[in-house]
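Morning. Coffee machine broken again, so started the prediction first thing and wrote up yesterday's gels while waiting. Chain of 341 residues, entered below exactly as on the submission form.
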Amino acid sequence: MPVETLTYETPQFLQKLIGNDLGSLRLIGESFGVNVTSREGWVRLEGEEKPIASVREVFTQLEKVRRSGGDVSAGMVRLVTESVQREMGDAPADAIMQLKLLGSGKRPPVLAKTRGQIAYVQAMRECEVVFGVGPAGTGKTYLAMAQGLHYLKEKLVQRLVLTRPAVEAGEALGFLPGDLKEKIFPYLRPLYDALYDMLEPEEAERLIERGSIEIAPLAYMRGRTLKNAFIILDEAQNTTTEQMLMFLTRLGEGARCVVTGDPSQIDLRRHVKSGLKEAVELLQDVEGVRFVAFAPKDIVRLPVVQRIIEAYQSGRSRKNETQWPKQDEGPGKDSCPSPDV
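Came back before lunch.
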């Protein structure tokens, strides 16, 4: 049986090539029916000639990303493996690096790591309004932030506006300690976290003080017209229908916006319809608007997060099937609980 060995300069480089996850070797090998073993700075491939050539191509694509300055993740390994497996001829490494964002100083470039993320970044570059809809951990907010900062640095927009609804989760804002800014800050903290992850603290503070970056609750958007700005509405599943319409009509000349949300995590009061759900229903065919739906396989957090979400989706689906009566069961259907989304 044919055997081939791929050798790299250091064990550390090989570890980074497979996303610091030895499970990636097993994934690559099982995908092509090749026995893949590794030690130190080499990888040994044992199998048929054509499958070995495919595995070699996977490592070649990952090496191109790594040597171009990109960080390889377990999700990116899956993306490249699937691309080679399908023989799509789309040079996944080139597609990933062509869409890279930021990357200056000590910060590595931000890269799309899954096929869903690649479609998302492409949509943000091509359309005025983009909806990123899907489960937690798929990079919806993070990539939107990176795209907005990229446009800001390239001077394609004059400012970056970040907003999210301040939905009360069991506590009224008025009864929380502190002034208004201190009460609202916890709702906006995830946006600050993403910002400081991409920029040096001094640079981020300078841009905020100068007004180039604005972070504010959604309620502060009413009555404004945002021109030459890149606007991100995060946690959009917690907007009401009126809030969503208000936000989408704030866009002025030269503006672009990204709306992110997870329909499975709606915190609105019972019987209040989500503005995100209504937008998905009404805007599918509107020119200039694009929807990108993320799947659990697009999750880039720990692999266990993907398995947890898939388990919840499966369990909730079975629960809906048993609790949600058929339409021909008569008047009792109004008393049933609303299905999870």
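The first helix runs from residue 11 to 17. Going to sketch it on the whiteboard this afternoon.
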